[in-house]
Design goal:
Blueprint: H1 3-6, H2 20-24, H3 31-51, E1 58-64, E2 67-75, E3 80-82, H4 84-94, H5 104-126, H6 132-159, E4 178-182, E5 185-191, H7 193-218, H8 238-245
Helix pairs in contact: 3-5, 3-7, 5-6, 6-7
Length: about 250
């Protein structure tokens, strides 16, 4: 058997035939490089997710004539910072709970949750075709889950008012994004750096998942692969090379 006949990188498509790889991601990037690219994207996603712990996910500014600089609150995954003491004093008059009481359970498990998501994202790099979507799912769902959780607590705090409060106040829902009005205060809510880092992590994981699909769709063992991929960084698979060479 000649040397030339044993070196087969991948099957060539028939003229005019659009392969699964091309239909998913245009370009000439070989399968092996796509595997490394998917791994690199996943690692970047984990780094962005862990960096997000250092920054607030959501911020709100309350403006009123007696507070010319406004009152600021920043919500991190694990803590709430800012002018919380002053805001709690004001909220007391309308029967609203202290800010510290919001999402206590979520903040207590946030660090473990991010570690869990990061671990799944790393396992996704080595996963087989049947498991990769499931392992990538936590990173894809996380930013959406944060938004939904914030909306829940904003609604609850604005509607679960103490009827014995000094001032009777109609139930309300503070704005998550954009300008709002609470009594004499105007509010401006916005997603912050931490959330956008988590959103960036989602985008990198989604790109990695897309690349993995293109590679797995071209693999001759795609229907036999289970939890882990034995040929993750080896293309073509040895058995397939020998069979093709013959």
């Amino acid at each position: 058997m000649s040397r030339a006949s044993t070196v087969i990188i991948e099957e060539r498509p028939e003229p005019g035939k659009v392969t699964e790889i091309t239909s998913w991601v245009p370009g000439p990037m070989p399968h092996g490089k796509r595997r490394y690219a998917a791994a690199a994207l996943s690692l970047v996603a984990v780094v962005l997710l862990m960096l997000s712990l250092m920054f607030p996910y959501w911020s709100v500014v309350l403006n009123a004539p007696q507070y010319p600089d406004g009152l600021h609150v920043q919500v991190h995954l694990t803590k709430i910072e800012g002018d919380t003491f002053e805001i709690d004093l004001l909220n007391h008059y309308i029967g609203m709970k202290k800010l510290e009481e919001a999402a206590r359970f979520e903040r207590s498990i946030a660090l473990y949750g991010l570690a869990f998501i990061s671990l799944f994202t790393l396992l996704f790099v080595f996963s087989g075709r049947r498991w990769m979507s499931l392992l990538a799912l936590p990173a894809l769902v996380f930013p959406i889950a944060f938004i939904m959780n914030m909306m829940f607590w904003l609604y609850r705090f604005g509607h679960d008012l103490d009827p014995r409060a000094p001032i009777t106040f109609e139930p309300f829902t503070p704005r998550l994004i954009g300008e709002g009005k609470i009594g004499q205060f105007s509010t401006v809510g916005s997603l912050d750096v931490g959330f956008y880092l988590a959103l960036g992590s989602l985008i990198f994981v989604l790109a990695a998942l897309l690349l993995r699909f293109t590679v797995c769709n071209a693999c001759p063992y795609k229907n036999k692969c289970s939890l882990a991929c034995p040929y993750l960084f080896l293309w073509p698979p040895p058995e397939h090379s020998e069979t093709a060479a013959q």
